[in-house]
Design a protein that fits this description.
Elements lengths: L15 H5 L3 H12 L17 E3 L6 E3 L7 E2 L14 H13 L6 H8 L3 H16 L10 E8 L26 E7 L6 E6 L4 H11 L5 E5 L13 E4 L14 H18 L7 H13 L5 H14 L25
Parallel strand pairs: 4-7, 7-8
Antiparallel strand pairs: 1-2, 2-3, 4-5, 5-6
The structure holds zinc ion.
Length: 334
Amino acid sequence: MGQHFLLSKDARDLPLQKVMRMTEPGAYRLFKRARWPLTNGEPVCPECGNVRCYELARGRRFKCSFKECKKEFTVTSGTLFASRKLMFRQILAIIAMSANGAKGKAALQVARELGVQNKTAWLNLMKLREALAARRGNMLLDGEVEIDGMYLLGFVRQENRKEDRVDRRTIETPQRVVVMAVRERGWRGQTVTRVTQSENANCAWDLVKSHVSREAHVYADEHLAYDELCGLNPLTRVNHSKAFSHGEGVSTNIIESFFSRVRRSYRGIHHRFSVKYLDWYAAELAWREDLRRKGNRRLTMEMLVRSLMHPTSRNLCGYFQGNKPKDFDFVWRG
Ligand SMILES: [Zn+2]
């Protein structure tokens, strides 16, 4: 029996103390290298792509030398961390802390560990989730792919007295949503998630059509939502009322293990995801699942690079001035 990855030395190649001991100029250099990898950290104009930019006298601001452009910018201009208030080192610490939580990281915990306000920690963690969720755009799974759905929200508390209780299976709650996901088997297998209002055929069709190669073999359970998929891809069904696995790889166990990470995160780390951001939480956990055997240096750097490649958030920019997404903005409707 092999050692669990998280117990190995490879899992801890970036201790938090190393981040905390970093100087602010050191963290700034890291941001520059992550933002402009092709020039090894030398500024590139975000407007016209000109590499001849000079630093202004007050420091950390650049100006494009191209006469028709003359754009002024910083290392975070036009990225998720635009108009940041935290120091570079603090942002890096939040990312590193987030990387260390296999099931995600709670904002309250980051706030305490770093000594920042809860809303600051929350907003920065949310930005990371938005950046990770954006990776789904061009993901295409191949080989053997499993599809399934998981109901997560819509919990109704039982009444105290027995005569007041209702059969919870029969009530429709307005907040009831489902996470649908496709996951590729194997070490490099990736996971794509989508949040929708019921486990339905349209969503399953669109998910497989957009994110699964036509050659892949799809495994699904007996739910009606997956009936039509045989028109898209080779399809094998697993009858869960008889057995969870029919041998020879006929099962949806791989995707179930992703869903169990989501459930543990929901109950153990966040104690609840709001409907509003469930899509981002699910996508974040899919990313964690896919990179579960990578060291925390890799996770930290990938989150940093993804946030610096992501344009300024239309969903979170000016959040505390009242710019908030609505409850079902990120729920797929087809
Ligand atoms: Zn320019």
